[in-house]
Write a structure and sequence with these properties.
heterodimer; A: mainly beta; seven-stranded mixed sheet; four-stranded antiparallel sheet; 11 strands; globular; B: mainly beta; six-stranded mixed sheet; five-stranded antiparallel sheet; 0% helix
Chain lengths: 113, 113
């Protein structure tokens, strides 16, 4: 089955620890995205990548980092510099930079205490 | 200025009625418009895309686009309790080829039996 996988579904961390969220797709899509969703806030773009080895900051990139070494993978690291990391994190992909139809993975719910 | 705006609701309609969800956007050159459905605790699912003025129908769903008024709507005919979800409007803002969308905060729809 083609799709986007995110792991784990739930993640718990102590404050001050870095944590990496996984996102993998087997849709052969060029572009991948990371969003954060908080209650009542909608989706906010963290980082996006339109091609391997290239990525751009979104609207709320501070405290996050990404890499895009493979077409299929776009991991997100939430660093200790992110002041309010508890949120629902969503990874999405689209066919290429000219296709704006984005498809989402199931999400990772991160709780930092 | 918010790029994409939706009434947050909640919108409540009886089973069998037509649910009307509205979205306005700020950028006159926007060309691509999408509706996503998000069930509680789940990730968004793409249900409609529209690129030209007028109506686009897919089963019980109809998307309507009026670029002159910068307005896009989603009609759900014969609403069912299973349609109860948050509906997100997404718009590709701006004339550049950078492939990112802007999302509204969503409208929560409840269909009661």
């Amino acid at each position: 089955d083609g799709g986007i996988t995110q792991s784990p579904k739930y993640l718990f961390r102590k404050e001050g620890q870095n944590v990496t969220l996984s996102c993998e797709q087997n849709l052969n899509h060029d572009a991948m995205y990371w969003y954060r969703q908080d209650p009542g806030q909608g989706l906010r773009l963290i980082y996006y990548s339109q091609i391997v080895n290239d990525f751009q900051k979104g609207d709320i990139a501070e405290g996050y980092s990404v890499s895009r070494e493979k077409k299929e993978s776009f991991p997100l690291t939430v660093t200790s510099a992110q002041k309010n990391p508890t949120a629902f994190y969503l990874c999405a992909s689209s066919r290429d930079r000219d296709s704006y139809e984005q498809y989402f993975g199931p999400g990772t719910r991160l709780t930092v205490t | 200025q918010k790029e994409v705006e939706q009434n947050s609701g909640p919108l409540s309609v009886p089973e069998g009625a037509i649910a009307s969800l509205n979205c306005t956007y700020s950028d006159r050159v926007s060309q691509s418009f999408f509706w996503y459905r998000q069930y509680s605790g789940k990730s968004p699912e793409l249900i409609m895309s529209i690129y030209s003025n007028g109506d686009k129908e897919d089963g019980r769903f109809t998307a309507q686009l009026n670029k002159a008024s910068q307005y896009v709507s989603l009609l759900i005919r014969d609403s069912q309790p299973s349609d109860s979800a948050t509906y997100l409007c997404a718009v590709k803002i701006g004339g550049s080829t950078l492939g990112r969308l802007y999302f509204g905060r969503g409208t929560q729809l409840t269909v009661w039996p």
